[in-house]
Amino acid sequence: MHSRDVILLTGMSGAGKTTALLAFEELRYRCIDNPPADLYTELFELVHHEVNAIKTVISVNLLNAKRAIEKARHIEGLRIHVICLVASLPDILSRYKLTRHLHPLQAEGYTLAKAIDTDLSLVEAIRPDVNDLVDTTGMKVTFFKEKLFSLFRHTPEKVMTVSLVSFGFKHGLPMDADMVMDVRVLDNPFHHEALRSLSGLDTKIIDFVERQAMFQTLIHQVQSNLHGYLDVVIQQGRHYYEFSVGCTGGRHRSVVFVETLAKALRNDPRLDVLVYHRDIDKFMNQE
User: Fold this and answer.
1) Over the chain (287 residues), what is each successive 10-residue block's mean pLDDT?
2) How far apart are CA 115 and CA 120, in angstroms?
3) Are 21 and 124 found together in one domain?
4) Residue 213: CB partners within 8 Å, gap ≥ 6?
5) Which domain holds residue 117?
6) Distance between CA atoms of 103 and 57, rounded to whole angstroms?
């Protein structure tokens, strides 16, 4: 980041802002959590005019995000990078039930579902201003932090981080994907009882998927096209790209495809490749 850039962190309540702040602390950022909205102008001016440049993250809730963005943009020479964290409704509900915490809007009489719906509408309101939308649905803390590290800890030997995500269409599309591919055209191991309980990380599933002629055709096409596409994206100065691959449940075909693609992309010394299987543990009776 430029010495006069500020990261503005916001997002849905329960989507991981606290975890994100911990990750930025590990990256040696100064983290300011939820400052009073009335002090935004003074705070942004202070950060901008500091003699010793310090990498800074300011976390604000969604209700104040639009105001914070507007105040920051009134400071001449200050550049902001807006990160917005989101997650699916089932995930947010599950997290609140697990922790037994109240959503901030519940104190104002909202039901939890209504509070989450309000958060989603606030996300849509600021979406044109967001630089990085990060979907934490199903994401383990370790991978979430690794993803943030890849976004904001650039190393000279790596030009771009490519995140490869497998998912199940039945569990919803990743909200932060740059490109999505559908591999449901491949024969589904779920329909074979001996394979059903296994995952795309198991040898029997890998063999079942890889021996299909269509798999070989698709993987070669994607490898060729994606390399050419990433060349253009790198020339445009981007440091992060997310390619998501979906099958029905996100447990078999998409996992094999992502793992195979990752092996190929790791041969490119410019790329730091992350792999995340979002729905691999969401085994259900019907697929």
Assistant:
1) 76 93 91 94 87 82 94 89 92 80 80 87 94 90 88 71 94 90 96 94 97 96 90 86 95 98 93 92 64
2) 9
3) yes
4) none
5) 5-139
6) 23
Last residue of a domain, one of 81, 106, 139: 139
pTM for the model stands at 0.75
Tokens of 207: 């063999």
